[in-house]
Design goal:
The complex is a heterotrimer.
Chain A lengths: L46 H5 L13 H29 L10 H36 L7 H23 L24 H29 L12 H33 L12 H35 L6 H14 L15 H13 L1 H15 L8 H24 L1 H7 L3 H31 L5 H19 L2 H6 L16 H31 L37 H4 L23 E6 L6 E7 L5 H17 L3 H20 L7 E3 L7 E3 L8 H30 L1 H6 L5 H26 L4 H26 L8 H32 L9 H26 L5
Antiparallel strand pairs in A: 1-2, 3-4
Helix pairs in contact in A: 2-3, 2-4, 2-16, 3-4, 3-5, 3-7, 4-5, 4-18, 5-6, 5-18, 5-20, 6-7, 6-8, 6-20, 7-10, 7-11, 7-13, 8-10, 11-13, 11-14, 14-16, 18-19, 20-24, 20-25, 22-23, 22-25, 23-24, 24-25
Chain B lengths: L1 H24 L5 H26 L9 H5 L7 H11 L29 E2 L3 E2 L2 H9 L1 H4 L12 H11 L6
Antiparallel strand pairs in B: 1-2
Chain C lengths: L8 H5 L10 H33 L6 H31 L6 E7 L4 E5 L6 E4 L1 E5 L3 E8 L4 E3 L8 E3 L5 E6 L4 E6 L12 E7 L1 H12 L11 H9 L29 E2 L4 E2 L2 H9 L1 H4 L13 H12 L3
Parallel strand pairs in C: 1-5, 4-10
Antiparallel strand pairs in C: 1-2, 2-3, 5-8, 6-7, 9-10, 11-12
Classes of the chains: A mainly alpha, B mainly alpha, C alpha+beta.
């Protein structure tokens, strides 16, 4: 019997033109100054040891995506269970009318925390966990492109979640609903620290979401395997890419809103106070500008996981890949135009009502396209009914029903009856549990063999599914009727004999059946760790690259990064499956520098353009996150000196993190055929750091735009107060505008200097000059606002907040320019290592634009008095 | 064979779930079927009550149950009494087991009322005294905060009968 | 002598269900709801059937499946829905100059009402009386946080937001009692902020309005005078107005005809002397978060007297 592994490898396909030449300028740059060798202590490590995860307590310093991904998943699941128990408490209280199991205050805390934990501490981190774990494995990379950012994000999430949960211990759990409407949540109506726990803890946890968005965008665009063009990516990558862009644009309004509300509570600034030109609806707009995209952010990865698993169990590629991609991108854009359908009862003008109603129904179209692609895939062959497939079928049933009630809710007259009633509670649980939780459980059954190397039980899995499916429908289906019978949301109890009694009792019963199903899953998970059958190679017969190794995949993911020629590499490329995974031909088999590295690609075509150097385990992300946690926690406790200490720790952590210069300037043999040499960490627009920087700038613009929105909204709805506000000093606003132009020019000059290979001294001088100008801008901006009292009106307060935001950007620039100059001064960087200055150039231009817009607004806002 | 059994179980369970959902949508106390059921429940309850009373009365040792007889309110309907307590608003001031929404803490809780010695601190706890108290509390205790709610004798008898079912609280 | 005791909340409070419409707006929405349920229910069954068919067939799908199912079908149904719902919305929100105007102000946790604010300016609280068959324009405001006015049997809801006046036009079509409830989370006693709407025949409503505009039917029997004195002596008039006895206070509900209301505490307990006495003595226990302090320092006789007097104000 011949062993295919000993046959000569199949003929190499002809070379594509994309690989013809190395990028211009790569060979000419001398490696002088580049770190050619491994950091201290790593010189003698072989490939496996370079990639090994540290053990014991030092595992906390690991930044590898597999470790960070599992941390997100485990922590997220624990929060899911906590929030689930809170839900059972809610249902126990509502089981009979006039129940006294929980008093009003406790009930309000319980339902608030249930929603808050589920939305912020479970759903988003869980999808981040899947993204962080699966993306490099599916695109053929050895790690994400910003591992330290991922680790930092996880610790911020952990500490933020602990702050929020600790509110129970201090008997100050938030009780204002997960949406924290004002004026109820302002300092006037909610005394004490409960709302502050929410605002401060959730904002810290949200840092994880935006850093994950940056990481996902840069990794998917810049680190795919050679030959994996955008149209050859696994469909899940498209879903995650769109989700990441939605996070980048959708989270900033909530961050800004939280900052405004916290400023109101801490400093008394009147953003939402109608007596001072504020508006309670401003909070609702900011919240729902986030809140609506948020639910699609939660739904899309679930649908993406269905799109990944479904073809595997049918044995055929996904039907209508192009349709599905177009639908996902459309949904991403459309979801930002629907937010006011949460506000139909607030007295919006009839034109707004009609527009938002129409847009809300329109989103059913791309959703329907995806569902029909899934159904069409089912028809391509006889599907296998495995446990994940059960959950996919459950998704189809539950999510489609939820989507249809959503279209009903988009009709304004119906919405005016169903809004804030149990009909909406039923709808939101159908789409969230159907659209995310069911696919998540399917995904857990599907990928757990990848985490642990063993299969979970088919029998217990079916029990878990049927208990969850039936319990869910028993609990939530009749809630549609409960709402139409007049039961409002968020009520701790209800009178008897209004027709709600039996409905609530049935819902409680169903909730416990659902919980039983989840309990079966947990039992099965722990049982399979020692008793489950070992998973063989590719146990599901999947097509994507994460199943290349026999589970468990080694720490480095790919010994050599293979070239990809198909969307289903394991089905279409025999050279990947006919030999042991460690012997597959590909790039970067050599490890001459004893550094962690992977291949960087062109964002569209997937052609290899650089070698990406990746960080080794480090403590700095944990230190930085710890510093932030101390900063946030101390502010909550009003111990402001401790906040300063925390800020110092965070700054030290960040400095240590970025101190080590990149290896730019070196050129290495990539191991792709014909000795293709690639530069290490290129210093141009192909750099993953450039793409990440751009993603960060997108987030900064979204934050800025949210603040501008707040100002323009108040100017539009409270014109008397806005016009009566004192105008900032024009001369200083004009000066700021002028200096902003200078900042723009200097930033542009710095990045040109790097690209053209200018002398280090020149760039250093430009750094220092920029630092001085930036300090000047901060001064002129402050002087412009001196005549304006932020407490005089909401409009003035927004103006000050805008300036504070610009001030924060300027502070970052100050630090960055001086840091760059310092490193050149001490000789820590050499020529060709200009990435920090290249990125500073883009950041400086963005900050200059935002400063100029702010200065222009100050020139015309308000009236001089 | 196992397949058919699985389908049968599935259909049965689905049927049960659907029946539960239909049941939950029902409004108790309305419609002819519900009234019929309620009437049957009253008849059955009365029958059970007689049997239970006979059992409780210690027929085993042939001795009459003086304690229960002493608290037997003539022409008192305990179920109607519980509904009357909602009607008169007793629950705003007293915690009363078995009466929905009766959680008031203005006056003493009425759990275990049957075991108490006095009514309102002034009258002996026996049907005559309790009925008189309920009809006009201020007459018997001029400083009491419990108002004269215009309770007539029939209503007072019903409420007294209910109160004497509250034991051991 | 079998007296019929009201057994259930529905006998006292009236319907609180969008599925039992008794108003013009609610009836329109009921028809829309029914139509949508049938239509989307059919779509749902159809999609599930398609899943089952796809599972069993081995012939691969064509692109036109996705086109028709995923794009054409939703677009057509959405257009139909938009036309129907816009028509319904226009019909529901049509304002009427001859409408009766009522100012409704939401507080934590009660409802302040002023009928015909530019004319008779009759102030009342918590139980709204409306004429059948005549449009009513409610001007909804809030004195503190966001509340929402919702009587499911009569019409859709509208939020009450501090700083703005939202208008809700409703027309009750059938006389009867209906219950409404605050539908925007407003704090500790949000579940206990309900109210009742009594719909009368137009002639009866006119009589009621004139009667309510007048002074309180006060102290009809001499033994109630003590209660009125307690009301004044203990400072209740600082928050509660009773026309003809104590005027000017607007911090709490107007009590001129409190005894005539069917419920107490904003639609939560039946109006009778027992509940009133319990309320006055310990409102903090019945409705946590209510701004009214518990008057548990009243003597027993004083409590009986003032509750008797209040329940006599019919």
């Amino acid at each position: 019997m011949t062993d295919a592994r000993h046959d000569p490898p199949p003929a190499v396909p002809p070379r594509s033109d994309a690989y013809e030449t190395a990028p211009k300028g790569a060979r000419e740059t001398a490696p002088k100054g580049a770190r050619e060798t491994a950091p201290k202590g790593a010189r003698d490590k072989d490939f496996e040891q370079v990639w090994a995860t540290p053990d014991g307590a030092r595992a906390l310093s690991s930044v590898s995506h597999r470790v960070v991904g599992k941390r997100f998943l485990i922590t997220g699941f624990i929060f899911f269970l906590i929030a689930g128990i809170l839900a059972l408490l809610v249902r126990l209280q509502l089981m009979v009318p006039e129940n006294t199991f929980l008093d009003s205050e406790t009930y309000n805390q319980v339902f608030t925390m249930h929603g808050t934990i589920m939305m912020f501490l479970f759903a988003i981190p869980m999808l981040e966990g899947f993204a962080v774990y699966l993306i490099p494995l599916m695109i053929g990379a050895r790690d994400l492109v910003f591992p330290r950012l991922g680790a930092f994000g996880y610790y911020c999430y952990l500490f933020g979640g602990i702050i929020v949960l600790s509110s129970f211990v201090f008997d100050a759990a938030p009780a204002g609903g997960w949406f924290m409407y004002v004026p109820l949540s302002t300092s006037q109506y909610t005394q004490g620290l409960s709302a502050d726990f929410w605002l401060i803890g959730i904002t810290l946890a949200e840092i994880a979401s935006v850093t994950a968005a940056i990481e996902i965008i840069a990794s998917i665009l810049c680190s795919r395997a050679p030959g994996m063009s955008l149209t050859r990516m696994p469909i899940l990558m498209w879903y995650l890419l769109v989700t990441a862009f939605m996070i980048a644009i959708g989270f900033p309004p909530l961050i800004i809103g939280s900052i405004l509300l916290e400023a109101e509570r801490l400093l008394g600034l009147p953003f939402f106070d109608i007596t001072q030109g504020g508006d309670p609806l401003l909070w609702q707009h900011l919240f729902w500008l986030f809140g609506h995209p948020e639910v699609y952010i939660i739904f899309l990865p679930g649908a993406g996981m269905v799109a990944t698993m479904l073809p595997v169990f049918v044995g055929k590629p996904l039907f209508g890949y192009g349709f599905a991609v177009a639908a996902v991108v459309t949904m991403g854009f459309l979801s930002f135009g629907l937010w006011a359908h949460h506000m139909f009862a607030t007295g919006l003008p009839i034109l707004s009502l009609s527009l938002f109603s129409a847009a809300s129904t329109m989103v059913a179209v791309p959703t329907g396209v995806q569902i029909f692609c899934f159904i069409a895939t089912l028809s391509l062959a006889r599907p296998r009914l495995t446990v994940p497939m059960y959950f996919i079928l459950g998704f189809l049933f539950i999510f489609v029903l939820g989507g249809l009630t959503g279209v009903m809710l988009a009709a304004v007259p119906f919405n005016l009856q169903a809004h804030d009633s149990y009909f909406v509670v039923a709808h939101l649980h159908y789409v969230l549990i159907g659209g995310f939780v069911f696919p998540m459980f399917g995904a857990l059954y599907y990928w757990v063999p990848h985490f642990t190397g063993r299969m979970m039980s088919e029998r217990l899995g079916k029990w878990a599914f049927w208990l969850m499916f039936s319990g869910f429908n028993l609990a939530f289906f009749m809630m549609h009727l409960t709402g139409l019978r007049g039961m409002p949301r968020r009520i701790a109890t209800y009178p008897a004999d209004l027709g709600w009694d039996r409905l609530n009792m049935l819902s409680t019963f169903g909730a416990f059946v659902l919980a039983a199903g989840i309990a079966v899953f947990i039992v099965d998970f722990f049982r399979h760790r020692h008793a489950g059958p070992k998973a063989g190679h590719d146990p599901w017969g999947a097509a994507t690259l994460e199943w290349l190794h026999t589970p468990v995949t080694p720490d480095y993911n790919f010994r050599a990064i293979p070239e990809i020629r198909s969307r289903e590499p394991l089905w279409d490329q025999p050279e990947l499956t006919d030999r042991p995974a460690t012997e597959i031909a590909g790039a970067l088999r050599d490890n001459a520098d004893h550094r962690r590295e992977t291949i960087g690609c062109d964002p569209v075509t997937g052609a290899p353009v650089q070698i990406l150097r990746l960080p080794h385990p480090t403590w700095f992300p944990l230190i930085a996150a710890l510093g932030l946690a101390v900063l946030f926690g101390a502010t909550l406790a009003s111990l402001y000196w401790l906040s300063g200490v925390g800020a110092g720790i965070a700054l030290a952590g960040f400095t240590g993190w970025v101190w080590e210069p990149s290896d730019s300037g070196a050129v290495r043999d990539s191991g792709i055929r014909d000795g293709l040499e690639l530069p290490v960490n290129v210093v141009n627009r192909h750099s993953h750091l450039y793409v990440g920087n751009m993603a960060m700038i997108l987030i900064l613009f979204a934050l800025f735009a949210s603040l501008l929105f707040a100002g323009m909204y108040l100017w539009n709805t409270q014109p008397l107060s806005a016009d009566a506000t004192q105008r900032p000093a024009r001369i200083y606003a004009l000066l700021t505008l002028g200096l902003a132009v200078v900042v723009f020019t200097l930033s542009w000059m710095i990045s040109r200097s790097v690209l053209l290979g200018g002398p280090l001294m020149l760039t250093a001088m430009l750094n220092v000059l920029l630092a001085v100008i930036v300090a000047g801008v901060a001064l002129t901006l402050t002087l412009a606002l001196v005549p304006v009292d932020p407490w005089s009106s909401a409009f003035a307060a927004v103006g000050w907040t805008l300036a504070a935001y610009i001030g924060a950007l300027l502070a970052v620039m100050l630090y960055w320019t001086l840091f760059n100059a310092l490193r050149k001064l001490v000789g820590a960087v050499g020529p060709g290592q200009g990435l920090p200055d290249f990125l500073l150039g883009s950041f400086g231009k963005a900050a200059a634009v935002m400063t100029a817009i702010t200065a222009a607004a100050f020139l015309f806002a308000g009236t001089p008095q | 064979m196992a397949r058919t059994k699985a389908y049968a179980v599935g259909i049965a369970l689905t049927g049960a779930a659907l029946a539960a959902m239909v049941w939950s949508a029902g409004r108790p106390g309305h419609g002819m079927a519900a009234r019929l059921v309620a009437h049957l429940a009253v008849v059955a309850d009365a029958a059970f009550g007689d049997v239970a009373g006979w059992l409780r009365s210690g027929a085993a040792d042939g001795q009459p149950d003086w304690a229960s007889a002493a608290q037997d309110v003539w022409q008192g309907d305990a179920d109607r009494g519980a509904a009357l307590m909602v009607h008169y608003g007793c629950g705003s001031c007293h915690v009363i087991p078995g009466v929905t929404g009766a959680r008031g803490s203005v006056g003493p809780g009425l759990g275990g009322f049957a075991d108490r010695a006095y009514v309102g601190g002034v009258l002996p706890n026996e049907p005559a005294g309790l009925v008189r108290w309920l009809i006009d509390p201020p007459l018997h205790s001029p400083q009491t905060a419990m108002p004269d709610l215009g309770v007539d004798e029939a209503d007072a008898r019903d409420m007294a009968a209910y109160l004497y079912t509250l034991r051991g609280g | 002598m079998e007296r019929d005791i009201p057994q259930s909340a529905l006998d006292i409070y009236g319907a609180q269900s969008a599925l039992e419409p008794a108003g013009f707006g609610a009836a329109i929405v009921f028809d829309l709801t029914f139509a949508m349920t049938v239509a989307f229910g059919t779509v749902f069954v159809g999609v599930m059937l398609l899943v089952w068919l796809a599972w069993r067939r081995d012939r691969p799908a064509r692109h036109w499946w996705v086109w028709s199912g995923g794009i054409v079908l939703p677009v057509v149904s959405i257009l139909v829905l938009m036309v129907a719902s816009t028509a319904a919305l226009v019909a529901m929100t049509r304002s009427d100059d001859t409408a009766l105007v009522v100012d409704v102000t939401g507080h934590q946790f009660w409802w302040d009402l002023v009928y015909d604010p530019d004319g008779l300016a009759v102030r009342d609280a918590n139980e709204m009386v409306l004429p059948a068959g005549r449009p009513v324009t409610l001007r909804l405001q809030s004195a503190d946080v966001i509340h929402s006015f919702w009587v499911p049997s009569l019409s859709g809801k509208m939020d009450m937001i501090p700083g703005r006046v939202n208008t809700l036009t409703l027309t009750a079509t059938e006389p009867g009692r209906y219950r409404g409830q605050c539908a925007e989370f407003c704090g500790l006693s949000h579940p206990r902020m309900a109210f009742e709407v009594v719909v009368l025949e137009p002639a009866a409503f006119d009589r009621w309005l004139i009667r309510t505009a007048g002074e309180a039917r006060d102290a009809a029997r001499p033994e109630l005078l003590r209660g009125r004195q307690v009301f004044i002596d203990y400072g209740c008039a600082a928050c509660h107005a009773v026309r003809g006895v104590a005027t000017g206070a607007r911090l709490g509900p107007d009590l001129t005809r409190v005894g005539a209301r069917g419920s107490l505490g904003a639609g939560m307990w039946r109006m009778n002397q027992g509940n009133l006495a319990g309320w006055i003595a310990d409102v903090g226990d019945m409705k946590p978060g209510a701004k009214m302090p518990s008057y548990n320092h009243l003597s027993g006789p004083d409590l009986r007297a003032v509750s008797a007097w209040l329940v006599s104000l019919k």
